[in-house]
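Notebook, p. 212. Picked up where the previous page left off. The plan for this session was modest: take the two constructs that came back from the sequencing core last week, fold each one, and keep the raw output in the notebook itself so nobody has to go hunting through shared drives later. Recording the first one now, exactly as returned: residue sequence, then the structure token string.
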Amino acid sequence: MAKTFHCMFEQSGTFKEQFETLGYKAIDYDILNDYGQTDVQIDLFREIEKGYDNEPSIFDGVTTQDTILAFFPCIRFENQIGMAFRGELKQFAGWTDEQKLEYVMALHESLHHTYIYISKLVVIALRRGLKLIIENPYSTAHYLVRYWPIKAKLIDNDRSEMGDYFKKPTQYWFINCEPAYNFIFEPQVVHKRKRIVAKVKDGGTNPTAERSLISKEYANRFIREYVLQGEGNV
């Protein structure tokens, strides 16, 4: 049975296109289609709820030969969340204690829901024996680093070294699979490094950070080096 790569929360199609370039079938899932690359436009949070409750969902179409890559929304897990809970955001200047508490209560509720969704996604994979790779930014203050029992198996401290435009440290959880660590004997494309300009909104980092900011060279290299099991120098 031919394997399929299911790219979830990835509108840009960057990884999907690189899987296809390498000869594999890939499908993009997201609630939005701003880039015209979403193959299945659907509420993934709702699908996670249904899959967790054993109701019909998109996970019924994923086999144990396939792999899910989830570029899970990170806004509620990044460093500014802790700053918000401590009342240290610049936007809090001049706010009363009551205003701060009302704000962080709503923020904490949103964080709770996001935490539940990513946890239920992993439970679905564990119950069904599905291969799952989850991507998120990395820092020692990242909420999942501090407060999640699942540990990342791969941390890329500098994405620019594998052909991306950004240094942005990134972590990857591998569920029911392991990083392949294939040897790639070829020169690496080096792009001029760009800086990420973060804007604080709703207590998180820039909510418009896009998966398209990952270069196709990085996606291709990452797939061949860490995702394709037993492929050797591909």
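Okay, moving on. Second construct, recorded in the same format:
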Amino acid sequence: MRHWACLAALTPLGCASTPPGPEVLSPPAPAAATASLRDVAGRTVAEGRLSQVGDSLRVQLQASGMRPGTYGAHVHAVGRCDAPDFASAGPHWNPTGQQHGKNNPQGMHRGDLPNLSVGTDGRGSIEINIPGGSMARDDGRILDADGSAIVIHERPDDYRTDPSGNSGARIACGVFR
């Protein structure tokens, strides 16, 4: 009896008749995630890739077979791409609650990307590191419970108009996996 009293005094929760269970850990963050962006007709027009680089998240987008021009591109908060308007991808990924655009004094969303310039050969690419971004699968991260998507818009992003840079309709979308 004296032994138990001594143990109870040393443990803040008192004596337990069973040892604590194993610690439940979150699954490790993946090394990378990829997305095939499809247009409304279901044709693959670009490939996206996410990877962790130190304390930053690297986003890469490679387009092929698109019309020449300049297009807005963003990482969106929901991993769904239901045609025809891809609205199911939700708003831009914005875990810090900022306004839109690098030129907005109250911006920018973490999901804001540079414009995608597509040449006469139908190809274009973006590569950017997002400081503070993470591949971890928990709240506020790129791969949270509902995932994320990458979207190409019909017009260039003006980098200041909230919420989407006046970049128009969503014309291609891909879910990161």
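Notes on construct two before I forget. The first helix runs from residue 2 to 10.
Flagging for discussion at group meeting.
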